[in-house]
Specification:
140 residues; alpha+beta; Glycoprotein, Type 4 Pilin; 4-stranded antiparallel beta sheet; 2 helices; rod-shaped
Length: 140
């Protein structure tokens, strides 16, 4: 029986160049996929905050109607919100704040979410006119 030659034995194996090409392709795919995944998860986390801010906005409208078309005196405790409704997987009731309350204006801020340890999470604001704004949290 004849032994296979050196050339015949190496035809079955991958070369170093082929392996490096595969590693490079996988790295490029990872560079594309990771930012997309991060953006999608941030968006889904913030949707919980937006829903909570909507609950507070509805309570503010009810408060305004019950108090002679004025937002004056509204606080998180006077809005008659079931605070359990503001507890979620990522947001706690303490992640929501009500600021700049006057007779005709208010600003609701949601975030950053305290139930996640991800850095750089955004926050969301909405005012009495329905103007929404999202921004990245930077120790404000």
């Amino acid at each position: 029986m004849k032994k296979p030659s050196w050339r015949m034995r190496h035809i079955r194996a991958f070369t170093l160049v082929e392996l490096m090409i595969v590693v490079t392709i996988v790295a490029i795919l990872a560079l594309i996929a990771i930012p997309l995944y991060t953006a999608n998860t941030t968006s889904s986390i913030m949707s919980e905050g937006i829903a909570g801010a909507g609950t507070i906005r509805t309570a503010m409208r009810t408060y305004c109607a019950a108090n002679g078309n004025s937002y004056a005196g509204a606080t998180m405790s006077t809005l008659m919100i079931n605070l359990v409704d503001l507890e979620g997987k990522y947001f706690a009731q303490t992640d929501y704040s009500l600021a700049s309350v006057t007779a005709s204006t208010y600003l609701i801020k949601a975030g950053p979410p305290s139930q996640t340890n991800r850095p750089g999470m955004p926050y969301y604001t909405i005012d009495q006119n329905g103007s929404e704004q999202g921004s990245y949290y930077s120790n404000q």
